[in-house]
Amino acid sequence: MKEYVVIFECAGTNYSAYVPDLPGCISTGKTLAETENNIKEAIELYIDTLREDGQPIPEPSLKAKAISVAA
């Protein structure tokens, strides 16, 4: 099991997500929950395609953490 950092962005009327460690692995959805489900599927398909093509699967290299500050 691998854990990849996913970046979620609000795009006005929907959400988008991408995985920096997996170039081109992106997805969208109407809600944050839908987008999370969609990007999980996209990651799985991305990795399946790499395996089928005999390509190496990138190791997760990023860490993320929310930092609270007074604003």
TrEMBL record:
Transmembrane segments: none annotated. Gene3D superfamilies: 3.30.160.250. Coiled coil: none annotated. InterPro entries: HicB-like (IPR031807), TA_system_antitoxin (IPR051404), TTHA1013/TTHA0281-like (IPR035069). Residues 6-61 form the HicB-like antitoxin of toxin-antitoxin system domain. This is Type II toxin-antitoxin system HicB family antitoxin. It comes from Aerosakkonema funiforme FACHB-1375.
